[in-house]
């Protein structure tokens, strides 16, 4: 089931384990970023894949936003997940304009001094934290956030397959987190099982829930599926949201555009839509 998060408890209900086939979700995003070089597409894909499965950990109207600042402080990644499964992401202009990037690895892109800033919670109760990126790997370092900030051992795994032309073949993600009082070695065992089974997602993502549960039992000894949720790309932008850009322009700039009979365009970095503000709309600002 594509874009469906499967939620389970394993190891005598001491670990919650979620997994997802988010191939279609990433295809939707890659369609908006076709010109990205392979390293940036992989970095974007790994980030949004992790955020898609983390959306399944949120409740009510909770939201989780992350800002990844690479070692070059002008290079940033922004991503957001909501409890309803909506996820969105973009790379900032400075990172998109980086030259000679085709042969760089994720470790090269992140560098030795990357930082992750996380804002999590509801509108009335938000928690902000900043953690470093010791692994220089996007999913490992998002998992490190939970360890450092929440003191909760967490494992995130994202498997993205691209062909030689950087077209997406498949994408899957897995999340495992120890529940209170569970011994730490159990999470290490989960990691070993995942690494020892390169075809793990073909086993887990069965058409029938009973087959997925049986695969979990075969892999981890015992398991119980406790629910499902969906995750999907959703920008949510609108023309009204971009009126703030007009208000941020000086009166002189707007009048100059009107004198030249020029429209003003606003571009959404997330979904790629362009909103045009015509002369009559600019006149309403005065």
From TrEMBL:
The keyword Chaperone applies. GO terms for cellular component: cytoplasm. Keywords: Chaperone, Cytoplasm, Disulfide bond, Redox-active center, Zinc. GO terms for biological process: protein refolding. GO terms for molecular function: protein folding chaperone; unfolded protein binding. InterPro entries: Heat_shock_Hsp33 (IPR000397), Heat_shock_Hsp33_C (IPR016154), Heat_shock_Hsp33_N (IPR016153). This is Hsp33 family molecular chaperone HslO. It comes from Planococcus maritimus.
